[in-house]
Amino acid sequence: MMKRTLVLMLTIILGLLCTPVTGYAEEDSFDFNATFQGAIILSLGSPNAVVDNTDTLIDQTNFNIVPLVKNNRTLLPLRFISESLGAQVAWDSKTSTATIKATGKSIKVTLGSSKMFINGKSFALDAPAQYKEGRVFIPLRAVSEAFGKKVFFDRGIIVVSNTTILNAKRDREIVDYLKFVLAPYSKDPYTGKTLSTEQVARLEQSVVMLESYDKDDNYLGFGSAISIGYGLFLTNYHVIADSSSYMIQTSQDQYYEVQGVVAADENLDLAIVKTSMRTNIPPLHVELTTKITTGQPVVAIGNPEGLQNTISTGIISGIRNYGGERLIQTTTPITNGSSGGPLLNMKGEVIGVNTMGIEKGDLNFAIPIDYASRWIKKYTALSFSSIPVLNQDQFRETAVTEQDPTVEQPSTVSQNVHLMGRTVREATLDPAQSVIFAIDENQSTIFAYRYADNKVLGESTAFSTPPRKLLYANGEIYVIFSNADYSSYRFEEQQGGQIVVLEADTLKIKDQWDTRIDPYEIEVDHSGHVYVNSGSGQWTSIISYDRATKKEISSATIRQGSHMVLHPSEDRIYAVDSDTSPRDIEMFRLMDGKFSSNQDSPYHGEYKFSTVIGITPDGKYVLNGAGTVLSATNNSASNMQYATAIDLFDYVAVHSAHKEIFFTGKDRMIKQYDTETLKVTGTLTTKGTILKLFMSDKQLIAITKITLPGNPLPQYAVEPVKDF
Length: 724
Hints:
Elements: H1 10-13, H2 32-35, E1 40-43, E2 48-51, E3 54-57, E4 68-70, E5 73-77, H3 78-84, E6 88-92, E7 97-102, E8 105-110, E9 115-118, E10 121-124, E11 130-132, E12 135-139, H4 140-147, E13 150-154, E14 157-161, H5 172-182, H6 197-201, E15 207-213, E16 219-229, E17 232-235, H7 237-240, E18 245-249, E19 255-265, E20 270-275, E21 285-286, E22 297-302, E23 310-322, E24 325-330, E25 342-344, E26 349-358, E27 363-368, H8 370-380, E28 418-419, E29 424-430, E30 435-440, E31 445-450, E32 455-459, E33 469-473, E34 476-482, E35 497-503, E36 509-515, E37 519-524, E38 529-534, E39 539-546, E40 552-559, E41 563-566, E42 572-576, E43 585-591, E44 594-600, E45 613-615, E46 621-624, E47 628-631, E48 642-645, E49 651-653, E50 661-666, E51 669-674, E52 680-685, E53 689-695, E54 699-706, E55 715-723
Parallel strand pairs: 21-26
Antiparallel strand pairs: 1-2, 1-14, 2-3, 4-5, 5-12, 6-7, 7-8, 8-9, 9-10, 11-12, 13-14, 15-16, 15-18, 16-17, 17-20, 18-19, 19-20, 22-23, 22-25, 23-24, 24-27, 25-26, 26-27, 28-55, 29-30, 30-31, 31-32, 33-34, 34-35, 35-36, 37-38, 38-39, 39-40, 41-42, 42-43, 43-44, 45-46, 46-47, 47-48, 49-50, ...
């Protein structure tokens, strides 16, 4: 399914910011998916189509099959329309007659005839059925009569639906957007000769955004990818790694599901993915790097920071050896989101795949296309349907699934596993009382659970908006709410949410205030400063508030959906972004609740970063779930420098009372580390899959999800894992 939800963003895409969409009361009141559910959308002269909110093609084997005008009559491809409406089409070559079987209907259309028969009854066609390139076309009006549908036509846009959706006068901007989405791709400017920069830039139509998702369909991030064949896209390995599924987004706001990974090489940092359907995105031409020279002008295309298909120019600075492989060094900027995009020569040929940039020294690198040439030759020579995909398990973000039969499942609930009897989304710990505060996902409430005696101590009233996250701090429960789902296209003027403070003993509302952003994560220091960042709007805000006055103190710019952690000294916050590739870590320096400065990590692709971030209890190191450990200092020259690597993890737990150790968790395995040496000093296992990991001065506690024999539904539990 497409991810178009707020189509009022189409005015931004089309540059129509000065013209409001008329006929709709609020800026976010037009829901594309709801409006066009079940509809067929076509455009004259274009092979592109939208059917029931899914981008598709009229004919995946012949891109010349398009709606057309002949003798002042608009003609539509009969088979595509019929099958899109759930009908079956049979062709009788002897009589040149198509028979369409739909619910309660039998429709017959004969080539050259000006009549159509519906259940044996004759209906006149305003133009005879036509034949073109092996396909039968019928007049637009016949679709309405044959299938009982409403047909809208304006400026080349055709909408077939159950009810009238659009009004030509009222919905001009929506029609403009549909024309933009469905427009046929431009003619390939490639001639084999030198092109102007403007001509090379036109090749951006062949560069897409590759979005990645986890096993629960949560958005992870994005990179760039290059069309190398119809439905085949070349990208970096690190763009597709640690993900369960992918989606292609074109510069025309089209979305295509990815069937899987066709080929991958982690050492070369290259991969090819295949879409579920054969797309018509024009493939780029490739050229081996045997002829490239230092000083040669080049063009890079990518999606830096989500700015889709940004064009940048530069020169080849040199050919380097990096880890035993050749790399093209270039002056074209490569930053978050550019990875996987093409480096082009001035003929418009792909000579490299952009892979990483190092901000210090403005160093940028691309992988020579030579390393992928064997793949490209092999897979583009195959028919699309015969191209195999690899087992996705090797790329998923979690190597062991909960249902893995090799992992021992508990036959009964042990004494150390406390079932909460709730569906838990987020949780926090009161370390002094051995009480878990958690969000009940089904009830939209906050409940307090004392695991020592399996007792629910209290529960808040139900909230009208689902709570996002919560935090126990300074004897209070902080809960954040967003007024709408997080979206890259929900900018700050459209955002909003609340911070609600609950009494820990009664779970009654103690205080609350509105925020001007969509709250995503929250941190609170001992001085009563509250820090909240946004989950929407691409480049957005992190805001500090005064707990006593509820007034905004300060703000800084941060990437949407960043995961953050407050340093033990409470003088800085470290954050890792969640929607770019390679990911970036940033530090925000704090002074009395104000953001005084910020600093980016010096790395962009050299070391892996996941969305999990933590700080060692002594405050000396930043821990990342990909296993990368960076320094955490007050000196910008030594801050966030690579220190070492530890094992991968999804959760981390620390406590100030035990600065000598910390714990990490992944799947059902917990590892204990020595803080000084960063070496594993012990391992523990849980009965269920770890969802949260907490540490108090007395215990290590895990929130887990367990599947018991005889009950297919997962149970959410508290597991005290270790006593101190």
